[in-house]
Design a protein that fits this description.
The chain is about 15% helix and about 35% strand. The protein has about 120 residues and is mainly beta. Strand 4 and strand 5 form a beta hairpin.
Length: about 120
């Protein structure tokens, strides 16, 4: 799901993040479509990855802003949303759990400032 401001100046999404800092920008039949951010903040296509290999999730915005990582943890005992630690198993496309998506949307909205919507 894409989030967009009324003036279309910002477009954000909940991205799966991978160990090499690539992030998802969508999905195809075979997995998560990923990009790597270039030195000028431009998205460089970086292939297709299995979303089940994601290390966590973050909110991303076209303006270059990127939220903190919500890290996947191995056991339910490590799950702590206050510390952005999530015990979840993403599917092939790397989708975040619904409660994490909601939190990521709040973080993205917070980066915009009050007069954006």
């Amino acid at each position: 799901m894409i989030w967009e401001t009324d003036d279309c100046a910002h477009e954000g999404w909940a991205a799966a993040e991978f160990s090499d800092s690539r992030v998802s920008v969508g999905s195809e039949t075979g997995g998560a479509v990923v990009v790597r951010w270039g030195p000028e903040g431009e998205a460089e296509p970086a292939g297709l990855l299995d979303g089940r290999d994601a290390v966590g999730w973050c909110a991303v915005c076209e303006c270059g802003w990127r939220g903190p990582l919500w890290a996947r943890v191995a056991t339910p005992a490590e799950h702590d949303t206050a510390r952005r630690r999530v015990h979840a198993a993403p599917g092939l496309h790397g989708d975040a759990p619904d409660d994490v998506k909601d939190a990521l949307h709040r973080e993205w909205t917070d980066h915009l400032g009050p007069a954006t919507f």
